[in-house]
Design a protein that fits this description.
Layout (H helix, E strand, L loop, with lengths): L1 H23 L3 H16 L2 H50 L5 H22 L4 H20 L3 H43 L7 H49 L5 H45 L4
Length: about 300
């Protein structure tokens, strides 16, 4: 995060303001849905229905416009950071004497592949948790305002994920670090072929190892997504069951049940994005440490 602030401190403030604008609008469509179902349709006021529907479309348009500007701004900040990393490595490489083929191979891997995920994370490093955390807080707060029993349902949705997500991410990080080191070895082997014969069997083994590591990462990643999706569907089932029961007994209105189920849908995406951000932060932390070790070594610093 120190590099993030050094590279794009002022722009992170602008991204934060756009993120606040987006999540400030996140609960408004839920309230408009509730009013359309309960108040307008219940009273048969066609004019009110059309006005509320127009308001819903207007809010959605404004929210999506803010998201478009936010995403483009993030992309610009990220690509600027990627370019800066590649230039820094290139300039430092020009300032030192020609290194070994192994060093050259590592630098090729860093310039071509490793700089992009590190720099790409700069654009979302602060705005993404602010945006997704703000959406989660506003939607959960709105649902608890509608029905206090949501204060029990929401933890059932999140708590199991706080257990299995960090464990699976730790396994992914180990494989990600091994993958980076292996790819550097592959690049070093290719670079050494310029002055010597390429060790084909060794390179083939490394390529197979990269394949195995990638498949391990995919298995953990998609298993994590499966478990998270199941938690979402279980929470929707609970909301429909309990909400339907309360609606039959007249304790809540049908529109409230609709708003709560829609709210759970609005929780699923930001929570998934928040977990993806935390996962990326963890992996990029590993990549940045390996990147920085090589750069400081080239710079002659301990």
């Amino acid at each position: 995060m120190g590099y993030v602030l050094q590279q794009s401190g002022m722009h992170q403030g602008g991204l934060a303001l756009l993120s606040i604008a987006v999540f400030a609008l996140s609960a408004v469509p839920l309230e408009l849905q509730r009013r359309i179902v309960n108040d307008a349709i219940g009273s048969g006021a066609v004019r009110t229905i059309f006005l509320l529907a127009l308001a819903y479309a207007s809010v959605a348009l404004l929210e999506q416009a803010f998201k478009l500007v936010l995403n483009v701004y993030r992309a610009w900040v990220s690509e600027t950071a990627v370019r800066a990393l590649r230039r820094m490595l290139h300039v430092q490489r020009m300032d030192v004497a020609a290194g070994s083929t192994e060093t050259t191979g590592v630098e090729i891997a860093m310039i071509v592949q490793e700089a992009e995920p590190i720099g790409g994370f700069v654009g979302v490093s602060i705005s993404e948790p602010l945006l997704q955390g703000g959406i989660l807080a506003s939607v959960i707060g709105y649902m608890i305002y509608l029905e206090p029993w949501m204060a029990v349902l929401c933890p059932l949705f999140f708590l199991p994920q706080l257990v299995f997500v960090p464990l699976m991410q730790w396994a992914i990080n180990r494989r990600a670090e091994a993958r980076i080191r292996t790819i550097r070895d592959v690049s070093s082997g290719i670079a050494s072929a310029v002055v010597d014969e390429l060790d084909v069997p060794a390179e083939s083994r490394r390529i197979d190892q990269v394949f195995a590591l990638n498949m391990g990462i995919y298995k953990f990643k998609y298993s994590m997504n499966l478990a998270m999706n199941l938690m979402y569907y279980f929470s929707v089932a609970a909301a429909l069951g309990v909400g339907g029961w309360f609606a039959v007994e007249g304790r809540i209105e049908v529109g409230t049940v609709v708003a709560i189920v829609s709210g759970l849908g609005k929780l699923n995406d930001p929570w998934g994005d928040f977990v993806n951000w935390a996962r990326e932060l963890s992996v990029v932390g590993v990549k940045y440490r390996l990147f920085a070790d090589v750069v400081t070594g080239m710079d002659g610093r301990p």
